[in-house]
Amino acid sequence: MLSLFALWCVLAGASATIDVEESFCLRVTDFAVKSMNVDNRDRDYGNNSKVPEEFVSLAELEDALLTNLFKGYQKWVRPVLHANDTITVRFGLKISQLVDVDEKNQLMTTNVWLWQEWTDYKLRWNPDDYGGIMSIRVPSESIWLPDIVLYENADGRFEGSLMTKAIVKWNGTIMWTPPASYKSSCTMDVTFFPFDRQNCSMKFGSWTYDGNMVDLVLVDHYVDRKDFFDNGEWEILNATGTKGSRRDGLYSYPFVTYSFILKRLPLFYTLFLIIPCLGLSFLTVLVFYLPSDEGEKLSLSTSVLVSLTVFLLVIEEIIPSSSKVIPLIGEYLLFIMIFVTFSIIVTVFVINVHHRSSATYHPMAPWVKSLFLQRLPRLLCMRGHTDRLRYPDMELRSPELKRRRGGAGGGMVGVKEDEWVTMLEKATYSVRYISRHIRKEHFIREVVQDWKFVAQVLDRIFLWTFLSVSVLGTILIFTPALKMYLSTP
């Protein structure tokens, strides 16, 4: 009837002159066309209630799909047809950030994405019945999950992931990629600190299901690092995954282990720890370049020793308290502390030698004179410290005076000559006394200068000795670490 009325409107439209009648006819014609389309579609699909109408929105279609899918769905039941069926979970890991590596507490903090995919046969549908919908997003709390957790968790949050929505495809395939923040245990090897490498692992597996119920399959043997945010202290050299299993009685529990090879970037510790320690070690060498009569020799050595103690306290706050290994920087600081201690002992000995003299009852042995005043200075390219003056011994009496006194005759002339001889002898005695006194003072001064020169020779010997030991010790301690660090790609 609507079709006939529409035909009448078309025939009458040619002669119609009233706009109201024309508008009414157009609306009636449009309604008739839509009615015919609905009738034709009903005949084609047999009036199936699941077939959506053209005016039904996508939201209404998804609402109907979710209602039908989860009608009678139980998320606590493993979605298998038979009891001996195994659900295969494809597992992968994507790291977004290496937040921190705590050497003191032996922890590694990471932000990752867990890629999980499995099939739930109860969540299937025909896309043609729901307007071509191929996939939907559903809350992960509403579906069955394989309860995969991190075994080496250190903060008690074993799941560690955000319950994001899961993607459910029309064939029952579920893909769930939740972000997670983990604190995992990591045994630290600080032998070559700060040129060390660490091997930290993350082991994932199902907490309640054994291998007969849930099996894990690696998606990729490498951790996805496409969206990785670089860390300022550590560099990830390699990150690989391997599948393993552990047996507990009759059951086998599969797990996936991801190993992270971490390389420390040592620039910070080199600038603020190693270089100052090197400077302190060479300051210790310079102690022997100071004059022995300066009191700052011991003060400088003591200051260096106190500074090294402060550095040891700083390192103790960084590295873990372990008796298995001694870190490289700890070995070096211990070496320098022993080095400084010996330098203090040697400095005290040199100062003691410097202040020796005959007045302190320290006569110089001939071999000391020969070795430290003649041979060693030439080997060390040192000049002699003083010019030695020789004073001839004066006889008690002049032979001429004796001859004249013995050959003089009597009389007044002889008496006068005797008086002159006596006066000359007294004058000679006085000169001899003064000469002896001057020679004694010169000898004492010469002994003092000899001991001071011996102290200078000792300072020069210990300067080169300690410099050689410092350079050689530094090379021997740091060479293995640098070789290992530079050999790493």
Automatic annotation (TrEMBL):
PROSITE patterns assigned to the protein according to its UniProt record, in alphabetical order: NEUROTR_ION_CHANNEL
Domain Neurotransmitter-gated ion-channel ligand-binding: 63-265
Keywords, alphabetical: Cell membrane, Disulfide bond, Glycoprotein, Ion channel, Ion transport, Ligand-gated ion channel, Membrane, Postsynaptic cell membrane, Receptor, Signal, Synapse, Transmembrane, Transmembrane helix, Transport
Membrane-topology annotation of the record: Multi-pass membrane protein
Domain Neurotransmitter-gated ion-channel transmembrane: 273-478
Subcellular location: Postsynaptic cell membrane
Signal peptide: 1-16
InterPro entries (alphabetical): Neur_chan_lig-bd, Neur_chan_lig-bd_sf, Neur_channel, Neuro-gated_channel_TM_sf, Neuro_actylchol_rec, Neurotrans-gated_channel_TM, Neurotransmitter_ion_chnl_CS, Nicotinic_acetylcholine_rcpt
Gene Ontology cellular-component annotations: postsynaptic membrane
Alphabetized Pfam families for the sequence: Neur_chan_LBD, Neur_chan_memb
Transmembrane segments: 267-290, 302-320, 332-353, 461-482
CDD domains: LGIC_TM_nAChR
Listed GO biological process terms: monoatomic ion transmembrane transport
Family: Belongs to the ligand-gated ion channel (TC 1.A.9) family. Acetylcholine receptor (TC 1.A.9.1) subfamily.
Family matches, as NCBIfam families: LIC
Protein's job: After binding acetylcholine, the AChR responds by an extensive change in conformation that affects all subunits and leads to opening of an ion-conducting channel across the plasma membrane.
Protein's UniProt name: Uncharacterized protein
